[in-house]
Amino acid sequence: MSVQKFFGADGVSLERVVINGPQGASAEVYLYGATITSWKCDGKERLFVSKQAKLDGSKPVRGGIPLVFPQFGPGDLPQHGFARTRKWTLQYAEEHGQGVVVNLQLKDNEDTRASKWPYKFDLLYTIDLTATTLSTIIKYENVDSQPFSFTSLMHTYLRVPDIASTTVTGLKDVAYVDKIKGGGDLVEERDAVTVNANEDRVYVDVPGIVKVNYGNESIAIRRFNFKDIVLWNPWAEKAAEMSDFADDEYPQMICVEAGTVASKISLNPGQTISCGQILTFEEGGYDAHDEAFRIPILFVPGNAGSHKQVRSIASASATAFIELAGNSPDVFDQGQIGYDYFTVGLNEELTALHGYSILEQADFINDAIRYILSLYPETRAKYRLPSQRTKFALPTSVVVVGHSMGGVVARTAFTLPNHIVGSVQAIFTLSTPHNNPTASLEYYVDKVYSSVNSFWRHGFHNGTLDDVSLVSIAGGSLDSMINSDYTYIGDLAPPKNSLSILSSGVDDVWLSLDHQSILWCAQMAKKFSSMLLQIMDARQPSQLLPLDERMSIMRRQLYSDWERGTNAVPESLTANRTTNDDYSYVYVHEDGAARLMPEDMKKLLSGDHTDKAGLGVALHLLPVNKATSDSTVQLLYDPRLFAIAHAPGSIAGYQPVFLGCNRIKVESNGTKPETRVTCRAIPAPLPTKLPMRRADDDPELPLYALHYMEVPVGLLGQFEFLGMQLPAKPGAAGFFHATIVKNLVQLESSPSYARLLRSLTIRTPTAKSHIGSSTRTRIRLNVPESPFFVFRATLAMRRSTSSSQFMSASPRLSPIIRQSDGRRFESRFWYDQNSVDLAIHGRGAYLPSDAITNAEDSELKSAGQWDGLLIDVWADPDYYTGFELALRINWYSSLNRTIKRYDMALLAMSFVWACLVMLHQLRTWNAGVSLETTPSSKCRGGLATPAFPSCLTSIERLIRNGTLSVLLVAAVLTPILQRVVAHLMGNVWSPATLASWNNLFMGTRGSGWVLGLVPALLVIVSLGFVALEAIVLTAICSLASWAVADVSGRFESTRKHWSRHDVLEAVSEDGRLKPRFVKIPVRPLIATVAFVVFVCTFVPYQFAFLVIYMAQLFTAIRTMSHAYLAAPHSATTLTPQRVLVSDVLRDRARYQLGLLLFWTSSLPYCAPELLVWVRNLSVMWFEDAPSDHNLANMAGYFALRLLASYHIVPRLTFNVTERVAPSRTAWWLRVMTYAFFGSAVVYAWLYSIRRPYILYSVANAISAWLALVQFAEFPLRLVSPVQKRILSSSALLGSRTSSPAVTPATSPVVAEFSGFARSAKPLATLAASRSDDQLDRKLR
C-alpha cells in the first residue's frame, strides 16, 4: 500500500493524492476542496464524477464526495460554503493493519475571515481506506474567541448501474422535506425508496444505517454525529441546466448525503466535534438489519486461510435467497429465512503442519459457537412467522462450513470438553483431508487425526452423533494441495449420516477444482448455496430439516446419477385422463421411437388440433405391448425445446410426466367408434444431466444441460403404451428423442495391466437399423480399485451409411463420455472430446485401526463397494451406429499420481537409503579397507591406505553389491505377503488386527496387486533423491572449502582463524612433535549452556536442530579446507607427514559429511514447527506445544555434533598395528551399532511411510548411540592391554621415517589404540607411523 502525490502532465490538473489500499482498493483525493473523486472497491468504481466536471479550480468538482461547510445550500456564502473551493494541506499518510489513512487540514485565512462567516477554525479531515470501506471523518475545532454555528454535509455522489433499479433502504417512517415540492413535513412510507424523477429531499434525524442497493450489491452508509440524509438526483430537466453535468448521466448516479443541515452545529471556543460517515461495500444487499436473527452459519478457514474466503459462498447464498423469496412468497412460513454468515479470524495459522494449532483453533471454535448462539435469544424473539403468531424457534445449533483443514478443526471441536452437545448438527467440508493428514511431518497432527477419527467412528456407533450430518466435497484431479483420496468419509460415518463426492460429479458444476477455487468457483458456490437453502428450517431448534430429509435433499442436489431414486407421482395425476378432454393432441409413434424437433411439434399442433392449443400439453405414446419386460425406454432431450411452456430460468428443471396408457373404444352417436386412451401416472427415475455446450451458446453463461432418463418397461405392467406428457408448443431450439431398446448395450472387459501396456480396443456391435439403437452404451472395466493408473481413452465413432429418413445431416449432440463407479464418490463428464484420461480417486490406502471398522451394519458394510470402472457413452443413435474405444496406460500421468499419493513414502525410503549409506561407510571403516585411491597411496607407490569412504562411493557400492536389488525384491514382495497373510488369517484375527496388518508398509486397500510395482518405483526414485542430496552437499562443501582455503592462503589473519586447529602445527619443520596441551573447549561449553537455556524457554528444539545442522555443515567445510591446506600441492611438499595428515583430515571430513547426509533426512520434520514458530512470532503469539521444549528431542544430534567436530568415529575391529583382536566391549559396540541401523531400516520400511515424523526420533536415537560410541573411546584407551606396545611401536616407527624419530616421551597420551579413532592432537605420531612402508605392507 502506498500514497503518491503528483501533478497532471497537462499542467492544469490539480494536485491529488492517490491511495492504494489492500486487495485492489484505491481512492483519489483532490487537494482542491479535499474532494474524493474516486473509490474503487472489488474491482469497480463506486463514486460518480461527471465527465464534464471542471478540474481546473474554476468551480467545485461535480461528483465524488465534495465537502459542504459552513453552509448548506444558498445563503450569505457561496452555494454550499467555501470548504469545497479551498486548497487543503496534506498533513500525513500512513499504513495500518487494515489499510491506509490520510489526513488533510484546512484552516481559516484572510479570505475566509473577510467573508460573512469570519470565524477562526481548524478542520482535520481523516480519510481511511480499507479493502471494503471508505471512512471520511472531519474534526471541527473552534479556535476563535467566540462561539459559532454551521451546517455541514458530505455531498456523496454514488455510481449506480441504473437509477431505475436502485433502491435506498433505512428511511422508512422518517420525516423529510421535499424541496422540489416547496417544503412541508412528510413521512416516508416506503421500505425501499426509488427515484424516478427529479428528487431533492432532506430526511431529518435518520436513525440507523442507510443502504443504497443495486443488483446484488449495496453501499451501507454509517454516520457519526450527522443527523440528516439528503437524497438528490437532477433527472433530465435539471441535468440539462448544469454546464458541468452531461445530459445523459443522471441514470448512473444518486446522491445520498450524510450531514447535519436541518439544524446547526454549535461550538464554543476551544470546543471540537467529529462528524463523518463510513461507506461499506456489501455483496447481497438484501439484509437491511444489522442484528443476527436468521440461521447461523460459521465458516472455518483452513491452513493459512483467511476469514474473507467466505465472501463468495455468502454472496451466492444471499443471491439465491433473494431469488427464492421472490419466486416463493411462502418461504418464510416454511422456515426458510436465510442465513447469517459468521467467520473466524485464525491468524492464517498453518494447521496442516501443526497439530497443537488444530486443538487451539477447535477450542476457539467452541467458544465462538457459544457466543453466536448467545446473540439469538434477544433478536430472534422479534420475528414471527408471517402467517402465524408463533415465533421462530430459538437456535440451538450452528451450521459449520470448513475449508481444507477447517473441516478437521470443526470435527476436532466435538472431542473437546468445552463442546456443547447438539450445538452443531451439520458440517460441510470443502477439500478437507479427513482420513489422513496431507503431510505427516509432526507428531501432534497424527495424534489429533487418530483421536478425532476414532471419536467420530465410535460416535455414530454409540449414538453420540446420530443427528449429525457430514458432507465432504473435494476438488479432484486439479487439487494439487491435498490428495482427494483423503476426503472420502465412508470410513468415518455411515451413509445415512454422510456423503462424499468430488466436484466433477456435482450437477451443474462438472469440473475438477483446485484447492482455493472450490470456494470462489461460481458454479460451485451457486450449487452449494442452493443446497443450503433447501435444508434450512427456522421452525426447528436445530434450524435444519430432520436428518433423513436433509440427506435426501443433499443427495438429490449433488449426485449426478439416474439410479439415485424415483419421482413421486403428483396427486393431480392419479386420476384417469382422456385425450379429447385433457390434451391439445395425442400422437402415437408406431415405429417405437419418438423424435421431436420444434418444426415437428408445430406441425402436430396445427390443423385439427388448433382449437385445443390452449390446453398447453400434448400426449406422445410409445407402444410397449410388444416389448419384452427387460426392455428399456431411453429418453434424451434438450430442455430448450420446452422454453415456451416454462420461464427461461426454470427450463433446466423441466422433465416430462410419464403415464401408463391403455386403448379404449367409445361409441360416438352410433357412427364408427372413436379410439381413445385412458392413462395413469407412473413413477419414473430422476433424470441425469449431461453437460454440453452448443455452438450457439454464450460462453459466459452456464451450460444448459441435456436430460437423460431410462424408464424400465417392467414399470408399465399391463399398459399398452408409455405416455409422455410434454408441452404442446415448442421452443425455438432443442430436441426430444425416446426409443425402446430391447437390450441395453453393456460391454464388460477384464484386461490385465500387461494388456493395457500396449492398447486395448473395445468395439460395440453395429446397429442394424436406427429403430431400437441405443442412445447410451456402458462399458465396465473389471480392474482393481487402483488410484495409481491413468488410462488414456480414445473414442472413434462409426457413422451410419444408410439413407434412412431419420438420418440427419449432422448429429444432434456430440458424443458425451462419463466415468463413474459403484461408490458414487466420483464421476466425470467430457463432451465433444475424442481423447480423455480416465482415473479414479480411491478411499485411502489405510484402514481405521479399531474394531468399529467392520461393524455389523449392512448399510455401512455395503457402502463404497467397488464394482469396476464404468464408462458410459451417449451419442445420437440416428447418426452413429457404434464406436471403438482404445485404452492404454498414460505413464506420465500415472507416475504423477503415484508420487502425489505416496509423497510421504519418498521421505521414508530416503531415510532407509541414508541409513544404508551410513552403515556401509561404518562397515568399510571398521574393515580397514580403502575403496579408492588416496594421496598417501600415491605417495606409497599405489598401495592402498585404509580410508573412510565418501557418500557417493558408498551409494555406488550399494548399487553394485546387490543392496538395490534386495530392496526392489522386498518392495515387490512386502504387499504381496500382506495380502496372502491377511487372506489366510482373515477368520482368525480380529478386525482391528487385520486393519493394523493392512496399514503396514504402504497399505493395501484400493491398490490391487499392482501395489508391488509402486514401492519398487519409489525405491529407485528415493535412491535418486539421496544421490542428489549427496552430490549437492559434496559440491557445497567442496566449493566452500576451496574458497576458504584460498582465502586462508592469501590472508594470514583469516588463515589463523580458520586453521587454529590445523594439525600441521603439531609437526615442527624437522618432523618432531611440538609440546601440546589439551585445552578446555570453552566455546562448546558456552554453546551447550546457551542451547539448553533457549530450548527450555523460548526456541523449539526444531530450531536447535537447524542450528546443529548448519554448524555441522560449517564444520565439514572447515575440515575439508584443513585437508586442502595440508595436502601436498607440489613435489617439494610431498612428504609422508603432510600426505598422511591430509588423509586423516579427509577421513574426518567424509565422516562429517556422511553425518550431514544422514541428518538431511530429518530436516523435513523440523520445517513445519519452524514455519509455525516464525509465523506465530510475526503475530506476537508465543504459546507453543510442551513437547517443543523437550531437550531429549535434540540431545543425540547435539552430542554427536560436539564429538564429531574433533574426532572421527572409532574403528571397531582388529587392531591395525598388532593384529590384536578387539576387546569384548568393542565387539559389542560394533554389533549394537549394526543392530541399531538394521532396526532403523526395518522400522522405517514397515511403519514410517504412514507416520514419517517418527524418523526424526529414530535418527536422534542413532546419533545418540554414535555419540556414545565416540565417547566410549576415551575410557577404553586407558584400559587397552596393548597401550605400551603401541607406544613403543610409535617410537620404532618414528625411527623408520625420513624425519627424526618421535619418542614416546614427546608423544601425546592419546594415540590410535586398538583401532579406535585418532585425535587432532597426536597426528604427528600417526603420520610418522603410517609413513613406514614395511609396517604398511605388514598391516595389509
From TrEMBL:
It is found in: Endoplasmic reticulum membrane. One of its GO terms (biological process) is GPI anchor metabolic process. SUPFAM superfamilies: alpha/beta-Hydrolases, Galactose mutarotase-like. Residues 946-1271 form the GPI inositol-deacylase transmembrane domain. It comes from the Eukaryota. Pfam families: Aldose_epim, PGAP1, PGAP1_TMD. It is an enzyme of class 3 (hydrolase). Residues 295-534 form the GPI inositol-deacylase PGAP1-like alpha/beta domain. Its EC number is 3.1.-.-. The chain crosses the membrane at residues 904-922, 964-989, 1009-1042, 1085-1111, 1153-1174, 1194-1214, 1226-1247, 1253-1276. Its main location: endoplasmic reticulum. GO terms for molecular function: carbohydrate binding; glucose-6-phosphate 1-epimerase activity; phosphatidylinositol deacylase activity. It is a multi-pass membrane protein. One of its GO terms (cellular component) is endoplasmic reticulum membrane. The keyword ATP-binding does not apply. Keywords: Endoplasmic reticulum, Hydrolase, Membrane, Protein transport, Transmembrane, Transmembrane helix, Transport. It catalyses: alpha-D-glucose 6-phosphate = beta-D-glucose 6-phosphate. InterPro entries: AB_hydrolase_fold, Aldose_1/G6P_1-epimerase, G6P_1-epimerase, Gal_mutarotase_sf_dom, GH-type_carb-bd, PGAP1-ab_dom-like, PGAP1/BST1, PGAP1_TMD. The keyword Nucleotide-binding does not apply. Belongs to the glucose-6-phosphate 1-epimerase family. Belongs to the GPI inositol-deacylase family. Involved in inositol deacylation of GPI-anchored proteins which plays important roles in the quality control and ER-associated degradation of GPI-anchored proteins. This is GPI inositol-deacylase. It comes from Coemansia pectinata.
